[in-house]
Design brief:
Blueprint (H helix, E strand, L loop, with lengths): L7 E5 L7 E5 L14 E2 L6 E2 H16 L1 H8 L29 H11 L3 E2 L1 H6 L2 H5 L3 H6 L2 E2 L3 E3 L7 E2 L2 H13 L7 E5 L5 H14 L13 H11 L16 E5 L3 H4 L3 H10 L3 E5 L9 E3 L12 E2 L3 E3 L6 H18 L7 H7 E2 L1 H9 L3 H8 L3 H13 L3 E5 L1 H4 L4 H14 L9 E4 L6 H6 L8 H11 L11 H9 L5 E5 L3 H4 L3 H9 L3 E6 L12 E6 L7 E3 L2 E3 L1 E4 L4 E5 L13 H13 L7 H4 L3 H9 L8 H5 L5 E2 L16 E2 L15 E6 L4 E2 L2 E2 L9 E2 L4 E4 L1 H7 L6 E8 L2 E12 L6 E5 L24 E7 L6
Parallel strand pairs: 4-12, 5-6, 9-18, 10-11, 10-16, 11-14, 15-26, 16-17, 18-19, 19-20, 27-34, 31-33
Antiparallel strand pairs: 1-2, 3-30, 7-8, 7-20, 12-13, 21-22, 23-24, 24-25, 27-35, 28-29, 31-34, 32-33, 32-35
Length: about 800
C-alpha cells in the first residue's frame, strides 16, 4: 500500500491550514504509513463468543505468561482487586463473576502487565528520530518504561537520570517562568483520585488554573449539557436500573468495542423483553447479536439479539432525529390525550416546555428526515417504543459529544427524556458512558480549568492559601497558547497528549515551541517523540502493581461512570524498582517547586494515602468519612440529586431547551467524516491491527464509504486515496488511505484515530464545551498521487 515514510516532516506555519514547509530531520508527529494494504473481509454478525475468549487469552498469556496473566485477570475489577485500566463501565454492586473483565479489558491489563521492558539501553540504541519512524503499535509493544529519562537540548537520544535530577529540572523550569500561567498541567483518566487531588492542589498553590485534561477531548460536552439542564454533570442511573428498564436507547455508541462489559447488561435486558434501540451511523456488531463468553452452553448457538430497532442516522443528524422523536410523541399524545406525555411531571418539575413545543412544531418532518437521513416511519417506530415504556434509559458516548453542536445533541436527549418523565425513577434516566476509568473522578477531584467558587473556598480553607480565581486553559486553549509562545512548559500526568489531541501537525509545532515537555507514563508513546527544547519521561506505577510505602501497602480510589467511588489495589511487583506512584511524583514535584511557599506536608501525605483521603473528605462534597466508607466492599455512591428525584438547578426544576437544526453544508463531492476506534484499540493505545467485527485486518489506514458515494466519486474498492479536510478556507491532508465500501449513510465517511486527527481543525470545537469536533470533519477524497490502487 505505502512506502516507508520520508524523514522530512510536514510542519505548519504560524496558523493552521496555512501553506506548509518541509523541515528535514524532525521526528514525525503522525503515525507512519503502512507497508501494505489491509485485508478486508465480511463484517461479523455476532460479538463476543469464542473469538473474544481466544483473543483475551492470546493477549494476556502472550504478554504476561499463563501464570502471571491468569493471576492478574482474576484480580481485575474484583472488590479486593484493581480497577481495570480501561473503560469506566461500573462493576456490579453485589456478587461479581470470577472473571469480571471483557476482551478489551484483558488487552488493557496485558498491555500494562507485559514482561517487555524499555530500559536505558533501549534509548541508547534508538534515537528519537528513529523511534518516530516506528508505528504506534510497535512503540507500545516495546514494553514498560523502567527509568526516568531526559532528552537534553540539542540531543538525539534520551538519557537516564535520577529522580532527584528529574524533579530538580522541572522545578528549575517552573520557577524560572515569568508567570505560573506560562505552564499547563494535563491529566489523563488513568490518574487516581488521590493523585488528581494532590495534582490540582499543587497546581493551584503554584498559582494557576491551567488544568486541561482528557475530559476536554471526550465527555466535556456531556458535563456542560447536563449541568445546565438538570444541575449535575453526571449520569442519573445505577447499573441496577438496567435490570428494570423497559426500553434502552443507545445513541452514538459502540459498546462491543469501547465498553464490552456493557453488552452483558444489554443482553440481560434484551432477554427479559426490554426493547433496545440503537441510533448510530454504522451498524455495530455488538448491538446486533452477542454471545456472553462465560455462558459455555450458549457459545455454539446464534447468540442473543440485542437491537429491536436500528436507526442509521447521518453523522451529526442526531438533533434532527431527536426532534423527530419529540414530534412523534406530541402527535401520539394528540391521538391519545393524557397517555403519552408525563404531564404532571412536566408541569411540576420542569420549565421551558411551552417554548420547546412551539419550536418543535415549527420544524417540519421533511427537515427532520432530510437532516437525520432516517425515514419518518423508523423514527415513529422508535417513538412508539418510547411511548410504550414507563422506564427508559438513554445512553450515549462520543458519537454525540464531538460535534460543534454537541451540547445541543445531549440536551435534545434530555428533552425527550423529560417528555416521558424518564429521569429520577428506578429503571430510567440519563447515562453518558464515559471512556477512561477515572476521567469522571478527575473532575470530581478538581481537575478543571474553571473551578467553582465553592470548591476553591473549601480548598483554600483546608490548606490555608488563596487559590487563583482566574479561569485557566482547557486543552484546545493550551495548544493555542503553546503555539503562540504563551505557555512554555507542559507537564502531563499520563496520557498521549500529541496523539489524543486534534490538528496533529499544528499541535506538534506547538509542543516544539515549549521549553520543557514532561510526561508521567507507563509505556512509550508518540508524545515522547515530539517535544520541547528539553523533554522528560517519568515512569510510574500502573494499576496492576503494588504500591508499598512506609505506612504499608497502599490502595487508591477511582470513580466510575455511575458515581461509585471504590478501591483499586495492585496485585504484582512493579516492573522496575525505579517506578514511582503518581501521588509520590506529584508530592516530590510540589515540594521541590513550592518549597517554603507551601505549608502542606507533601511527603507526609504520600506515606499513607489515608492522609490524602482525609483531606479530600474535608474539601469535596460527598466524601465525608471517605476512609471508612471506601473500605466497604464495592465502595459507595456519591450524592446525585437528579438520580434521587431532585433536580439541583437554581429553581430545582429540569429545563427543556430549544436548539436550531444544525445545517450540514457540504460542497460538491464532499463528505462528513467521523473518527472512530478499531476493535484492537483503546483511546490512543493500539493492541493490534485488526478491527475484527468490521472485517478489517492488518491495517488501519482505511476510509469507510457508502458504495453509492464511491461510484459517484469514481472510486473503487481497495483504491489508495488522500483525504483533505476543509474548514474556513483551510485545508489539511492525510495521505494514502484504502477505500473500504461499508454500510454507512450517504455522504458520510469513517476513519480511525489518531491517523486522521491531522484532519481535525484546532478551531473546530463544540460550542460551550470546546470539545474538538472530531466527528464532524468535512473532507474530500481523491486518488493518491503515484498510487496504482
Amino acid at each position: 500500500m505505502a512506502e516507508a515514510r520520508s524523514t522530512e516532516q510536514v510542519v505548519p506555519e504560524e496558523s493552521p491550514g496555512a501553506p506548509v514547509t518541509l523541515v528535514p530531520g524532525l521526528p514525525g508527529a503522525q503515525p507512519p504509513l503502512e507497508p501494505k494494504a489491509p485485508e478486508v473481509g465480511p463484517v461479523q454478525e455476532v460479538a463476543g463468543g469464542v473469538p473474544a475468549v481466544m483473543s483475551s487469552l492470546q493477549h494476556a498469556w502472550g504478554e504476561m505468561g499463563p501464570i502471571r496473566g491468569t493471576q492478574l485477570l482474576l484480580q481485575v475489577n474484583q472488590k479486593d482487586g484493581f480497577d481495570c485500566p480501561g473503560c469506566a463501565w461500573p462493576d456490579p454492586d453485589a456478587e461479581r463473576s470470577v472473571a469480571e473483565f471483557c476482551e478489551n479489558g484483558a488487552k488493557a491489563v496485558a498491555e500494562e502487565g507485559t514482561k517487555a521492558r524499555v530500559t536505558p539501553e533501549f534509548f541508547r540504541q534508538h534515537s528519537v528520530a528513529e523511534l518516530a519512524q516506528q508505528s504506534d503499535l510497535w512503540l507500545g509493544k516495546q514494553g514498560r518504561l523502567t527509568h526516568p529519562m531526559v532528552l537534553r537540548e540539542g540531543s538525539t537520544h534520551y538519557e537516564p537520570l535520577t529522580w532527584e535530577e528529574a524533579v530538580a529540572l522541572v522545578a528549575e523550569e517552573l520557577n524560572g517562568l515569568g508567570s505560573p500561567d506560562e505552564a499547563c498541567f494535563y491529566t489523563s483518566g488513568r490518574t487516581s483520585n488521590e493523585a488528581a487531588f494532590l495534582y490540582q492542589l499543587f497546581v493551584r498553590q503554584f498559582g494557576t488554573n491551567n488544568l486541561p485534561d482528557c475530559a476536554d477531548l471526550c465527555h466535556e460536552s456531556s458535563g456542560t449539557a447536563l449541568n445546565e439542564v438538570i444541575g449535575i454533570g453526571k449520569g442519573t442511573v445505577k447499573l441496577e436500573d438496567f435490570e428494570k428498564a423497559e426500553a434502552i436507547f443507545v445513541i452514538g455508541q459502540n459498546p462491543g468495542t469501547n465498553h464490552p462489559r456493557m453488552l452483558t447488561s444489554l443482553q440481560a435486558a434484551a432477554r427479559r423483553g426490554c426493547q433496545i434501540v440503537s441510533i448510530n451511523p454504522l451498524p455495530e456488531t455488538g448491538l446486533n447479536r452477542f454471545k456472553h463468553p462465560q455462558e459455555l452452553i450458549q457459545l455454539m448457538g446464534p447468540g442473543t439479539a440485542i437491537n429491536r430497532l436500528w436507526l442509521p442516522v447521518r453523522i451529526n443528524g442526531d438533533v434532527a432525529l431527536l426532534k423527530g422523536l419529540g414530534k412523534a410523541l406530541l402527535e401520539e399524545e394528540a391521538k391519545r390525550p393524557g397517555r403519552v406525555l408525563a404531564k404532571d411531571f412536566i408541569r411540576e418539575r420542569t420549565t421551558g416546555f411551552e417554548a420547546y413545543v412551539e419550536a418543535l412544531r415549527a420544524v417540519s418532518w421533511d427537515e427532520v428526515v432530510e437532516q437525520s437521513g432516517v425515514a419518518k416511519e423508523q423514527i415513529v417506530a422508535a417513538a412508539g417504543i418510547l411511548a410504550s415504556s414507563e422506564r427508559t434509559i438513554f445512553c450515549w458516548a462520543m458519537g454525540l459529544t464531538q460535534h460543534q453542536n454537541a451540547v445541543a445533541n445531549i440536551q435534545e436527549i434530555v428533552n425527550v427524556a423529560l417528555l416521558r418523565g424518564s429521569v429520577g425513577k428506578p429503571g430510567a434516566g440519563l447515562c453518558p458512558v464515559r471512556g477512561h476509568s477515572n476521567v469522571q473522578g478527575d473532575r470530581t477531584m478538581g481537575i478543571v480549568e474553571k473551578p467553582s467558587p465553592a470548591f476553591l473556598e473549601a480548598l483554600g480553607r483546608e490548606f490555608r492559601f488563596e487559590p487563583p480565581r482566574a479561569p485557566g486553559l482547557d486543552t484546545v486553549a493550551t495548544i493555542r497558547a503553546m503555539h503562540e509562545g504563551k505557555v512554555k512548559v507542559l507537564f502531563a500526568l499520563g496520557g498521549n497528549f500529541l496523539s489524543a489531541t486534534p490538528d496533529t501537525e499544528f499541535t506538534a509545532a506547538a509542543l516544539r515551541r515549549t521549553r520543557l515537555t514532561a510526561h508521567v507514563s507507563t509505556k512509550l508513546n508518540r508524545a515522547h517523540l515530539v517535544h520541547g527544547r528539553r523533554a522528560l519521561i517519568l515512569p510510574c506505577l500502573g494499576r496492576t502493581e503494588r504500591d508499598v510505602r512506609t505506612g504499608g501497602e497502599q490502595f487508591v480510589t477511582v470513580e466510575n461512570s455511575m458515581g461509585v467511588v471504590h478501591t483499586s489495589r495492585g496485585a504484582v511487583q512493579p516492573a522496575s524498582e525505579h517506578l514511582r506512584s503518581e501521588p509520590e511524583i506529584v508530592a516530590r514535584l510540589a515540594q521541590a517547586v513550592l518549597g517554603s511557599r507551601s505549608q502542606v506536608e507533601w511527603l507526609g501525605l504520600v506515606e499513607d494515602y489515608d492522609r490524602i483521603r482525609e483531606r479530600i473528605s474535608r474539601v469535596v462534597p460527598g466524601f465525608e468519612r471517605f476512609n471508612q466508607r471506601v473500605r466497604e466492599p464495592g465502595g459507595f455512591y456519591l450524592p446525585n440529586g437528579p438520580r434521587e428525584g431532585r433536580f439541583t438547578t437554581g429553581d430545582s426544576k429540569a429545563r427543556f431547551t430549544v436548539h436550531p437544526l444544525p445545517r450540514i453544508e457540504l460542497g460538491p463531492g464532499q463528505l462528513l467524516m467521523m473518527t472512530i476506534r478499531s476493535h484492537d484499540q483503546y483511546n490512543t493505545t493500539l493492541y493490534g491491527l485488526d478491527d475484527r467485527y468490521r472485517g478489517i485486518r492488518n491495517g488501519r489506514r482505511v476510509v469507510m464509504l457508502n458504495p453509492e458515494d464511491m461510484r459517484s466519486l469514481g472510486l473503487s474498492e481497495g483504491q489508495v486515496v488522500d483525504l483533505t479536510s476543509h474548514f474556513r478556507g483551510e485545508k489539511r491532508v492525510a495521505r494514502r488511505f484504502v477505500v473500504v465500501p461499508y454500510r454507512i449513510p450517504r455522504r458520510c465517511a469513517a476513519t480511525y484515530f489518531p491517523e486522521t486527527n491531522v484532519l481535525v481543525p484546532i478551531d473546530s470545537y463544540a460550542e460551550k464545551s470546546r470539545t474538538p469536533a472530531s466527528k464532524s470533519v468535512v473532507i474530500s477524497v481523491a486518488p493518491s498521487e503515484g498510487a496504482s490502487g
